[in-house]
Amino acid sequence: MVGSVLRFGKSHHQNLQELLPWLLNGTLQGEEVAQVEEHLRACPGCRSELELLRMLQSDYRASEVAPEAEAALAKLRPLLDDAVPAKRPPRRTPSRTGRPTAPIPVWVKLALAAQFALVFGLGWQVLQPDRAGLAYHTLAAAGAPERVAGSLVVVFDPGTAQRDVARILRGSGGRVVDGPTASNGYVVAVPDGGLNTALTRLRAEPAVVVVEPLQLERNR
Amino acid sequence: MHGKGATPSGRKTGTVPNAGSADDASAGEAELLHRIAVGDRQAFDTLYRGYFPRLTRFLERVMRRPHAVEEVLNDAMLVVWRKAGTFNGKSKVSTWIFSIAYRKALKAIKRFDDPVESDDQAFESTLPGPESQLMQKQRTALLMEQIGRMSADHRAVIELTYYHGCPYQEIAQIMGCPVDTVKTRMFHARRRLRQFLSDRKEEL
């Protein structure tokens, strides 16, 4: 405590004299009080200074304003509507883990969009052989209806274990036709009539970040 | 609500600090801030009414521009409303709020290019009395005028020490400066006032 009171480069007298205003306002504590009071007993100059400070403090407190808060508060209230407190409870749906989700930065959204477009293009390329196959079958059995399997793209949380990825994909009833991409995305071909079921099952998995159909089931 | 003589710490001026009640007040104010952080208007109104007299007085003395006090005070309290959730409890609530108000006051002072308004009347006692009281009234007015000529930094130290009863450590937190700077500013202010009184010894 002493070290915080006394400073080099100043006399002991000045160090203690500087503390007089706070002795007067009653906020000096512990050893500081003892040191200043001891000094006061021995220093007529500081006793005189203390009397002057007492007068200053008395004069200073002699004035008092009695402001009225309500009128000023009434002016401020409309501004509060536009100024949201910085730490409100999150308004978004809680994450699947039950913890509040952090805001998603714009760059992450853009990256996800670009990734989705890439996977979509990849899936489209993968499906081209099926179209060629369709043409062949059409020639072999003219007029016969053809059914094209649905396909979807699914992106997993990067932290998902491989065995969980495999389990979830198997559970969807689909078959991986491409992937994984750098962002843990897969293109999955789904048997006839199974697209909606696969989408529902995958969307129910907490580890799945994105799941979207690439091609709707249709009859030919 | 703190009335006349209340300090930023919730203490009454001129009395020995009561650490228990100050801590209780700070804990109560911290709870108010917690509620404000989730948008509780009633909690904000309570805090606003509690701080309004103290902040008004503080800003009047630091800025010396009564017409601007309310605007600056509301600016500061708007920050309190917005940032209540960021209060980390490392200082007292009162220190945090006064430091916001002080920064707002300094910014406002920089914007002003109008002359300082004379608010000597505000410092005058309203109680008529014997000659000694009239002399004190005159001396008070002269002292306040002299303090008004000092820098905002010096006025803030005087105000926080003599009126709000703050420890120098708390003043340093409010003003964002070392404790030695607080002591030095007060020392220089005292020296100037002492000289002023000495020069006018005859008339006072």
Description:
The complex is a heterodimer of chains A (220) and B (204). Chain A has nine helices and six strands. The longest helix of chain A has 35 residues. Chain B is an all-alpha fold. The longest helix of chain B has 23 residues. The interface between A and B is large, with 42 and 62 residues.
Class from secondary-structure proportions of chain B: mainly alpha
Strand order of the largest sheet of chain A: 3-4-2-5
Secondary-structure element sequence of chain A? HHHHHHHEEHEEHEE
Order of helices and strands of chain B: HHHHHHHHH
- Oligomeric state of this protein: heterodimer
Question: Share of helix among residues of chain A?
Answer: 40-55%
Mean pLDDT of chain A: 73
Most extensive interface, residues per chain?
A: A-B, 42 and 62 residues
Task: Give the tags.
heterodimer; A: 220 residues; alpha+beta; four-stranded antiparallel sheet; two-stranded antiparallel sheet; 9 helices; 53% helix; disordered N terminus; B: 204 residues; mainly alpha; 70% helix
Strand and helix layout:
The complex is a heterodimer of chains A (220) and B (204).
Chain A: H1 2-5, H2 12-17, H3 20-24, H4 30-42, H5 44-62, H6 69-82, H7 106-140, E1 147-148, E2 150-156, H8 162-172, E3 175-178, E4 185-190, H9 195-203, E5 208-215, E6 218-219
Antiparallel strand pairs in A: 1-6, 2-4, 2-5, 3-4
Helix pairs in contact in A: 4-5, 8-9
Chain B: H1 19-37, H2 41-63, H3 66-83, H4 93-111, H5 120-123, H6 131-148, H7 152-163, H8 168-175, H9 179-199
Structure in a nutshell:
In chain A, 53% of the residues lie in helices and 13% in strands.
